[in-house]
């Protein structure tokens, strides 16, 4: 069974059949804002060829849509309130289903809390690796302040960077505890070349498993011919459509990086 129901904002059940992507590897890149989530994720993407998914950016794009879900997110963002975890996971699921030809996925700055991770693990799959970024909170706060300043954010938001990092650090540690042996820690304040070398080493087993899996998949030419059978009626499986989903390899700034 690969189908999961989610309750949408308009109270209609939508079935997400995650079977088409469940065989693909998933890596979480998880650290506090300013830890370098985006930089590390891009490096992993360069090494593996996996598709990056930025949940924070997807949520903000959804807020621009004139839909029940979009309006809810916009209201939450305006009030500086947390987005419901299920809403974020649903948007990620839709994006993954729109990129079924990907080699794998990298979720940037995900998950934000243990509830979000539990929903994703149950409805999609467990990640192959959780790359936990380690960086001094003061360094992360300074980076975040600089990024917010570049984005032209209000002075009050820039000044709250230290508090944002402090609160995020507690949540991130709790998330990492739940993944046990899946977690690999990484000092994200190092030289980019050293960073890439370290990532190649800690992801070597995941990359090798992916290569073996790909080599075992039958090619179109070698696939056995199956005699057609009379169609058997079955209940339709509906995968949630998402219109005009962007290709996620474009450079988009995410304040959570």
Automatic annotation (TrEMBL):
One of its GO terms (molecular function) is ATP binding. Gene3D superfamilies: P-loop containing nucleotide triphosphate hydrolases. It comes from the Eukaryota. Residues 213-257 are annotated as: Disordered. GO terms for biological process: nucleobase-containing compound metabolic process. Keywords: Kinase, Nucleotide-binding, Transferase. InterPro entries: Adenylat/UMP-CMP_kin, P-loop_NTPase. Residues 241-251 have a biased composition (Polar residues). Belongs to the adenylate kinase family. This is Adenylate kinase isoenzyme 1-like. The gene is LOC113396672.
